[in-house]
Specification:
The relative contact order is 0.05. Among the domains are: 1-32; 41-147; 153-179, no CATH class; 269-322. The chain is of the alpha/beta class. The protein has 13 helices and 7 strands. The longest helix has 29 residues, at 4-32. The mean pLDDT is 78. A 7-stranded mixed beta barrel has the order 1-4-3-2-6-5-7.
């Protein structure tokens, strides 16, 4: 009998697998529709004399670029030889702006034996084709007139070489058809994949133990409980941050300090220096007087000419000589007389 915990984990795994499957299915639908699943589409019509080679789903290309597909092929009921069949084409609406109104369509193929498609050759009109409009059909010239026999011979030679390589076992396709090497490699890869899947499914392996046991769940649950207990201690006022959350004394202290700073700033702003123009004028007058004194000193002869500097330098030089002489011959200056 599985426990409720195992049942819950089984539900979680089923839900996860369902989400992954839906994501893969959405991606496949997006790729199968070439990314145009949610784009708005419209219809264009083409009247042709014969629908040989066309079917529902045939590509529609404008100057070689896919713009839509053939939706429906039916008889038009017209008696004109070139309007016997009506082809309804589904085209992406946002690509109509790149198809001028004077464009024409032809039924063509990439190669001589390739699948056919409807090729729209764009015109020179500045007006784009409108939704549900008709594209003019232009018949292809005679096949023999436009067939390049030399190019056709080259293509046949390439096909013959390809078939020869396959028959002799050369190349990837030849090895796959004639030999068993690639088959054996695929079988080996499948066996390795199957072994990996069994390892995941086995409860004795490390990965299987993680998937089928609740050890990882208990470890995560322990971490969550530790965080919950830490939050509970903070809420109850324990630890270093607990008192700050429970008591607003520190907050009030900070607010009181900010109030004192605000009052100090308000007192400075209300002082006579900031409020009175007389104080500003007095300070300005003193600064101008100081600037004037500095200018007068710079304009004095002491700063303009070098005479005073030369005199001071000469006096300094003479004093230095006198001190040097005194140091070398002090008796010359110290004379003692005995009475």
């Amino acid at each position: 009998m599985p426990t409720p915990r195992q049942v819950n984990w089984a539900k979680v795994r089923v839900f996860a697998m369902t989400v992954v499957a839906l994501a893969i299915l959405s991606e496949l639908l997006y790729l199968l529709t070439n990314g145009t699943l949610l784009e708005k589409k419209t219809s264009l019509y083409l009247y042709i004399p014969d629908a040989t080679g066309l079917a529902s789903g045939t590509p529609v290309r404008a100057d070689g670029i896919d713009v839509g597909k053939v939706d429906r092929i039916a008889l038009s009921g017209a008696v004109q030889p070139d309007r016997i069949v009506r082809v309804t084409m589904t085209v992406e609406r946002q690509k109509l702006g790149s198809i001028p109104a004077d464009s024409f369509a032809q039924i063509t193929a990439d190669t001589l034996i390739g699948d056919k498609f409807i090729g729209i050759t764009t015109g020179a009109s500045r007006v784009a084709v409108r939704p549900n409009a008709e594209i003019v059909y232009q018949d292809n010239p005679d096949l023999m007139k436009r067939l390049d026999l030399s190019q056709f011979e080259k293509q046949l030679r390439v096909v013959d070489n390809l078939l020869t390589d396959i028959e002799q076992g050369r190349g990837l396709v030849g090895q796959f058809v004639q030999g068993t090497g690639m088959y054996d490699e695929w079988r080996k890869l499948l066996r390795e994949t199957q072994t990996a899947v069994h390892a995941v499914a086995a409860t004795t392996s490390t990965l299987g133990h993680q998937v089928y046991s609740d050890a990882e769940y208990q470890r995560l649950r322990g971490k969550i409980l530790e965080v919950d207990q830490a939050l509970a201690r903070l809420q109850s006022g324990q630890g270093a941050l607990g008192p700050m959350l429970r008591d607003d004394a520190q907050y009030q202290q900070v607010m009181a300090a900010l109030g004192g700073w605000r009052q100090s700033v308000a007192g400075i702003q209300g002082s006579e220096f900031f409020q009175s123009d007389a104080s500003y004028a007095d300070w300005n007058r003193q600064i101008r007087a100081l600037i004037r004194q500095v200018d007068d000193f710079n304009a004095s002869p002491v700063m303009i000419t070098s005479e005073s500097y030369d005199r001071l330098q000469g006096m300094t030089r003479e004093l230095g000589k006198t001190l040097r002489d005194f140091r070398e011959n002090p008796r010359k200056y110290l004379r003692l007389k005995v009475f």
